[in-house]
Specification:
Radius of gyration: 20 Å
Helix content: 55-70%
Number of helices: 4
Distance between the termini: 54 Å
Structural class: mainly alpha
Number of strands: 0
Length: 151
């Protein structure tokens, strides 16, 4: 079923939008990739903690989605940031989420055990995403015979 809209819609004009800064370039920068990782992991792990006990399969699938999103909507050169920062953002976001939403508090023993069990549940996903992410990085962005610039 096709909907035919009139060609000249008289929509109201919104004033003040002309002076907003334009987006430079295409895609997310490195800080944008990191912010996307933090927000998605926090959102999905919070939902999993509400409905279950700890983050599990949906957080693991989110890691796959984040690698895919970083490849597709990231600028050239941001794949390195996406691969390196994924374990860091996962650990820090889980630490914050388990301490606040998870109800573990800041007691070192409870929080440490909860963090280790959550990371153990997500280890297969994280390991595969990291290996595949590094492989994609080396095949896409490192030229043959050239050393990788990791700085």
């Amino acid at each position: 079923m096709k909907i035919n809209l009139p060609k000249n819609l008289n929509l109201p004009k919104v004033s003040g939008l002309e002076n907003l800064p334009k987006v430079q370039g295409r895609g997310l920068t490195s800080p944008g990739i990191i912010a996307m990782q933090i927000l998605f992991i926090f959102f999905v792990s919070t939902i999993e903690i509400f409905f279950g006990d700890e983050p599990a399969i949906f957080t693991g699938l989110t890691l796959w989605f984040l690698l895919y999103a970083a490849i597709n909507i990231g600028r050239k050169g941001t794949l390195f940031t996406a691969v390196v920062w994924l374990p860091i953002t996962l650990t820090s976001t889980l630490l914050f989420t388990l301490a606040t939403v998870g109800g573990k508090g800041v007691a070192p023993t409870k929080l440490g055990i909860a963090l280790l069990t959550s990371l153990a549940r997500l280890a297969p996903y994280l390991l595969l995403v990291t290996i595949i992410g590094w492989a994609i990085y080396y095949f896409k962005e490192v030229k043959p015979g050239q050393r990788a610039d990791l700085s």
